[in-house]
Request: fold
Amino acid sequence: MLESFDAPLLPYFEYRYQLIRVHPRSLGEHCKWLDMFEDTDIVLFCVSLTDYDKYSVDRNGVLTNKMLASKELFKSIVTHPTFENKNFLLILNKFDLLVEKIEQVPLTHCEWFRDFKPVVSPNCHNSTYPSLAQRASHYIGMKFNELFRSLTDNKLFVSLVIGLENDTVDEALRYAREIIMWDEEEKAYSSCSSLENDL
Reply:
């Protein structure tokens, strides 16, 4: 799906976004179609927060944890030459479903999350204390951030989304536009600084 939308933050730029659903099986060593995205400013990578205990069959016919499959797909995209030095926004989706699920199914069902040991406080019913779902989503974001930092020198941006709530999706897209704006401003500032140094 290719669409244009107005970007009030940057009135002189027209943004285009393209939504592509990629199955891990479609990424192999000879995945040349990713080269089409060399002009991409930002990659939005979506992960379902509730996939930590779900399984699917990988391209070799092996039953694989879906969160681990997302992790491997993330590594493949981040390390692909087309996306070198590109901005990445990790979208953690289905937070509303995680709120219900995390109370019944521990995050440690996924071997990548075996070290998740949230501290239980007597004040856990206090509205200012983060819920178990909030701590779990923060932890998942940190795990992806650690992975990202081990693969690149860039910063990983993270946004929490409830896919069926348009406001949270719009907020994530606004955040993506702001990241692009920051990047453009930084490039412009670097160009000016280098020009001043040349003078």
About this structure: DSSP finds four helices and seven strands in the chain.
